Amino acid sequence: MSTLDDRPASPAVGEAQPANPGGVAALTQSPVAIRLGAILLLAVGLTLLQLPGRAFWQGFVINLGIFMILVLSLNLASGFTGVFSLGHIGFMALGAYGSAILTLPLAKKADYLPNLPAWLAAVHFDFYLGPFPLGFLLATLLAAGLVAGVALLVGLVLMRLSGHFVAVATLGFLVIVRVILFNADNFTRGSRTFSNVTPYTGLWWVWCWAILTLYVVWRLKYSAYGRAMFAQREDSLAAQAIGLAILPPRLLAFVVSAFFTAVAGSLYAHFITSFSPTVFYFDLTFRVITMLIVGGLGSVSGSVLGTVAIMALAEALRRLEDVTLLYGMSQITLAVILIVIIIYRPNGLLGRREIVLARLFRKGGEPSP
Amino acid sequence: MTMVYYAIQQTVNALSIGSLYALMAVGLAMVFSILRLINFAHGDLMMIAAYLAAFALFANVPLGLTVIFIIAGTVIVGLLMERIAYRPIRGAPDVATLLTSLAVAQILQNGMLLTTRFLGQPIQIAFPTPAVLNGVVAFGPITVPRLNVVSLAVGFIALVSLSFFVTRTVPGLSMRAAAEDLTAAQLMGININRIIALAFAIGSGLAAIAGLLFAVQAGQINPYMGFTPVLKAFIAAVIGGFGSIAGAVVGGFVLGALEVLLTALPGIGDILPPGMVSPSTQALIQQWLPSSLTGYRDAFVFVALILMLLFRPNGILGRPDREEMR
Using CB atoms within 10 A as the burial measure, which of A17, A248, A346, B52 is most buried? Predict the structure, then answer.
């Protein structure tokens, strides 16, 4: 794929050629048809995964979707704006705990979290609309909305910083969230495992949210807001000189991204069903960052690619670890990959560029974007 | 009188913690001032020193030799780190260097995890504290843990020799020149590769000392023990004004004092001697400074970091802000 190449606009180096340009030619010229086709393909894939005996792959694909949401939203916050956040996993943790507390059935809640304040103890989101767990959706939206509010407050303060300092300040936010989760026993059971979460999350939940995230992030990239984000990332002084404010685009990216990160947290909580504050810390942060950097800061399709590549690699390495008993080897490999990418391909696999599905089908030449 | 003794003990406590943070922060600040690199792996140098010390002490190596051994070992790791990971990305954007150092930190942590597994050790091992560092020292009615006195003394000696080095010797002056302007220093005939390596070596040596003292204080070590201290050292460096060695030292002591204060204040209402304050005041103190706040200490410390970054980004010793054109 020429789009993977570093050089700008090089003439089709091994561009994917359509095997049969005849009958499908008309369809492959229509971006809408291609996108619908891709979604259909995904739907078929997900349906096939629900056949019995696919438990491992189901879990893998659910994890893949959750990580994809995390990486896409981190890309929005950090890749688009250049304001690197190391604290996003904190939003994920808040989303996970928030929605898990909300969906806990009343009886369990009184038993499990006896010291909740009365107003929260009376709230429960375990209701269904027919077969559809509406409560889960509402709890996720509510938790993510609250987290977006937190992100607005945090962002108003932190998005004024730049470079290293914002990275370390957001890391500070992660530590603060962790300390709070460990100490707010009444809400989180402290360092004890929070279990008994209803396992609502399935393939469809995760991938609907993932597609929505993909869509929103994609639309934002090519909107005026997105261009403002990229402009102030490339040169904040020049952006200010032409009248762009710095804070609003950064804040928008940060808040929207925190929302989806919290959604990923909620999906994760209702998938894994028991977790503790230690999960949401540096290892997870590092893994998401590796996926993002491998894909390329600022590239939406790069995030998708990076997530798939690192997920597959990490799974393979994990199995290798189980065989060789060299625990820690997979983390080292991922870290080495990150360093090598930063040294030799500092813009990741794709940089800011995108793989456009329609372009893969087109013959020769560089189409207009 | 007991309150006075308590205050003095806490002050010594604050100074000894502060000198540990200062030892760490100085290494971070030296590297940052020259390369604009926040070296997150600095904390893991400390961790490596702690493990080397544990292995040496388990093998009954005398303490003096152990200290030399861990300093040498940590300096070698620090130099390798600079040569392999940081030299190729010199001059890269801030975020790239930061992420590289995070990756290096991951490699060191998991490398140590692998090593301990290989040696058949558990993840967390008890640190074999040398007898010299155990026990308390009594100054009249005041007793202070011997470790705190040693930390304070060692920190003081190390920092004074460092200040002598950077102000009175040619390599020290070259290092400050490189921190001021790397290109200009190079044009003046300073071999910056050597100077940068020297900065890493000195930082690693100080981290090794801090690692030993920290391990004794914690009583146990694990491969992840460097993470929180390096963040704290970063806070110390920011408080003092990032990139300045003097600032890092001041910041270390300020942070030490802040931490001890945040540990001592919650729950202070419960231990006030009777008759010192009126019962209603005591009740008020108990209500607003409950001992349950102690757990939130680190959260408050990081809030302090964020406030510093916002209002005094150049630290309490720093120069006024200036936007750099690049």
Answer: B52
